[in-house]
Design goal:
- It is flat and about 30 Å long.
- The chain is mostly helical.
């Protein structure tokens, strides 16, 4: 239930302000709700928007891709 609520809140935040950090948050919430391809797409979007947290974004992207190949 908490994961679903987190996803809803992240989606709302993304609608209001789709900056890199919120996009990254939505990617993680999507991942936690088994929306792995969406998480990958959103993390790539976050990377394109801002390179300030590039290391962290790339680490999460690698985690999402690894989970996708494990399916």
């Amino acid at each position: 239930q908490d994961r679903v609520q987190a996803l809803k809140l992240a989606e709302k935040a993304y609608e209001l302000k789709p900056d890199a950090r919120i996009t990254d948050t939505l990617a993680e919430a999507s991942f936690l709700n088994d929306q792995i391809q969406r998480a990958i797409d959103l993390e790539i979007e976050a990377i394109k928007k801002d390179t300030q947290y590039l290391k962290e974004y790339r680490e999460r992207l690698a985690k999402y891709k690894k989970a996708l190949t494990a399916q």
